[in-house]
Amino acid sequence: MFGTLKTLFTGANARAEEQLRDTFSIELIDQKIRESEGSLKAARLTLASLIQRQRAENRQIETLEARIKDLLSRAKQALDGDREDLAQTAAQAVAEMENELTLRRQTLDSLDRRILQLRQSVATASRRIIDLKQGAMTARATKREQTMQRRLNKHLGGDSPMEEAEALISRVLEQDDPFEQGEILREIDGELGHAN
Question: I want to staple 108 with a disulfide (CB 3.0 to 4.6 A). Which of 43, 57, 59, 127 is the partner?
Answer without folding.
Answer: 57
